[in-house]
Amino acid sequence: MQKTLKEIADFIGGELVGNGDTVITGVCGIKEAEDGEITFLANAKYLPFLDKTCASAVITSREIKTASKPVIRVDNPSLAFIKAVSLFSRVEAKHPTGVHPTAVLGKNVSLGRNAAIGAYTVIEDNVSIGDNDVIYGQCYIGRSCSIGADTLIYPQVSLREAVIVGSRVTIHNGTVIGSDGFGYLQIEGRHRKIPQLGTVEICDDVEIGANVAIDRARFKKTVIGRGTKIDNLVHIAHNVIIGENSLIIAQAGISGSTVIGNGVTIAGQAGLVGHITIGDGAVLAAQAGVTKSVAANTVVSGYPAKPHETAIKVNACVQNLPRLYEQVKELEKKIKELESNG
């Protein structure tokens, strides 16, 4: 597939600067792009690549006034590039249609209009599946689950009993939603399980990556708010409440009964203790060890997590420890020499 640069500019609503007849055959990142491809520049740190890239054209912000090759200037280069990518998609998703004959449906299952159930999927009793839902093969949908419209569930996903999933939700392979929360009492040296009687509610427009585990609440609900996106290999414990439009990155772990606000970013491998609150707009940096609540619009990092500016200073001091250690040893030596001469 190929498009002229003018066709792309018209499609993404950008201002073309340069030869509109330039033929574009694909898309790629600014460092990897080759002749015939279009790329984008959204981050100022990649500005030196604007004239170095081998791409035939670049989608940029409107602040870029001159370049050595044709550009399309837009308000949001990242969003415009996403639109441009759709013009060159070579793989068209072909989701299952209808109910596969090997699927097993229990009693009182409600199937919405145009719902699709893949091969060897098990749907237990009293499940409600919305219009245009696609559930791939080898999934398990437990009794009394409810799934909204236009939701896509990839293979080998398990929804345990009474889980609620909203509309326009995407759940990737291997994720388990509604497994028991991790709760035990130690009685006479043995661990006795605390019943987990609640459920999980996944609100509208959420996307959940592969191999994510979201535990059911001990009572009431574990909640993932509208528009929140969860990366692969994340664990969310029982009774956690996550607000709207937050980002949870790979290998993060959130302990029980923690409340996370709207627009929060939890970076990769961050770990949160239980029963704390993370305010709206907070950013928890990669590998942050969060042991207490974080105020809204605050950036924290390190272990234990502290304001990022402080964490940077602490880390700088730690890096100097070998040199300081040698200085102290030298000072001790000189003191002993002075004492022996005194």
How would you characterize this protein structure?
- There is one protein chain.
- With 342 residues, the chain is of the alpha/beta class.
- The radius of gyration is 27 Å and the shape is flat.
- Strands 10-13-16-19-24-27-30-33-36-38-39 form an 11-stranded mixed β-sheet, covered by helices on one side. It has a 10-stranded parallel β-sheet with strand order 8-11-14-17-20-25-28-31-34-37, with no helix packed on it.
- The model has no long low-confidence stretch (mean pLDDT 94).
- It folds into 3 domains: 3-87, MurE/MurF, N-terminal domain (Udp-n-acetylmuramoylalanyl-d-glutamate--2,6- Diaminopimelate Ligase, Chain: A, domain 1, 3-Layer(aba) Sandwich), CATH 3.40.1390; 104-309, 3 Solenoid (UDP N-Acetylglucosamine Acyltransferase, domain 1), CATH 2.160.10.10; 313-341.
